[in-house]
């Protein structure tokens, strides 16, 4: 993904993934900076695994 100014912080984004019931083993794989249209852009790669199937609850 890429992060521009005034967007969600990478740490906050990762924290949201960690808190999500959908993912497990969230890790930052790499990060680089570059300039695009005179704006600093942070490119990052995050790896995570999907959790296994969850049994359905009665009444759903």
Automatic annotation (TrEMBL):
Listed InterPro entries: PilN
Protein's name in the database: Uncharacterized protein
């Amino acid at each position: 993904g890429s992060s521009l100014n005034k967007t969600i912080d990478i740490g906050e984004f990762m924290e949201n993934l960690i808190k999500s019931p959908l993912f497990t083993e969230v890790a930052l794989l790499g990060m680089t900076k570059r300039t695009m249209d005179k704006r600093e852009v942070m490119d990052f790669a995050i790896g995570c695994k999907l959790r296994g199937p969850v049994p359905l609850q009665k009444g759903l």
